[in-house]
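cron nightly-structures :: item 1 of 1
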Amino acid sequence: MWNPKVMPKPTWNSRYLWPELIGSIAALVLLLAAPVRAQDYKSYTRETFDQWYEKYKDTKADFKPGDVLTAKDIERMRPFVPPGYLEQLNFPEFKAEIIAPVSHRPRQDYVDCTEKYQSQVRMKPDGSVENYTCGQPFSSELKVDDPQAGFKAAWNFEYRWQNYGYFCDCPATWDRFGGSHATPPEYEPPPPSWREGIPFTWTKPSAEEMKDIYGGGGNFQRHLTCMYKKIIESHLPQLPDHLVPAPDAATFEWKEFTGFFEPFDIRGTAFIIYRYNDPFRADDAWAYIPNLRRVRRISAEVKSDSLLGTDHTLEDFYGFSGRPLEWKWKFMGFKDALVVMDSKYDYTHLYGPNGIIPNDVWSLRRFVLIERKSKDPRHPYSSVVDFWDPENWDTFYMEAWDRKGKLWKVWEFQKKWTETFKDWADINKGTFITNFQSIQVLDLQNDRGTIWITPGGYPNLDVKVLGLYDINKLEEIHR
């Protein structure tokens, strides 16, 4: 059937038939060959991603360190930025200064532990591991034809180098695409009692610095502030017995504390989660709810629900913080990608029409692509693809598809090498980790996102911090 908006119906008596027809066909060919417009990413499916990967998995860049890419270079960047996120870079002010990739080799004690114990680690048929002591459990030389390669990558990620665990002040902002925000959100530090055992010097960003942190557009609809602290209790290469000095430390892989103190309606809300070394044992979790003035045990197994209305879930922490055995894992292969891994700033700088794109330096690095699918048929994600750096197993991109197979969310993790910090240096330097600066979650189906600014680091152990994870004291630490 003829579509007059695309190709006029031919008039056979017209002496201009062939020029018109040829011109219309040429216009149609150009239309089909044109790059996908920004608004078309809402139609992207998992097949869109697979086609992108197959087409560009071995593509070599035609740019080099020292080059500056702009919105005019979108097609040059397409092979190295996942579909759905690339389109967000297409605005007039976009600029990406390309820098050379930097080695992010973990600290030597972790490397030594890997070399000493890796050969004894075994993968069981059910996907669990045995004989793991510390370090990276499996080699980074993964093979697509190895049916266990996905699980090996998952355990490398689970046991990646993190010193004693991560700490951050984590303001989150609801960002509705379009519009503008008159002023950046306020930044307030957490209660001093929450930071006990985490000594460091810190300077509050100035008003001008806050404008750089929250640059660009976007309609900021809500803002909350929290403090997060994770403590790793076992498999620690830096300690002789690989355990923190705490009762039953061998029972736990890690513990997490997340406390909220702004805005007023959630002030004092706090969560504690325990992850056990037994991979088949469900996580335990407790919450202090200020309105109830009591501590309640909660289900930690429902990690796929929105975290206090953000576009992030508990399971999305770090890119993945679920339990590996609850997922099916597939190693897809390797892929070069453009990322912000070595920021030139201490604090993230954002810009763009929605205020959610990093205004920083970019580098091209090799990543492992891992597909995971939940074994729970009720999970809201039909599949997820993670971009993990095989040198240290950190996440830098993540894409998730809804139950209909449509691209739903994209995560961009903006980071900085711990050894280059000025502010926050006393809890970063000497740890040799790519530290979080911010996490941008883009809900592409609903034209919104969540911006997590995550200043912090990987402090050494002070036993005072162990009290933060005491369930009996959870009620005492609220404001």
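cron nightly-structures :: done
The radius of gyration is 24 Å.
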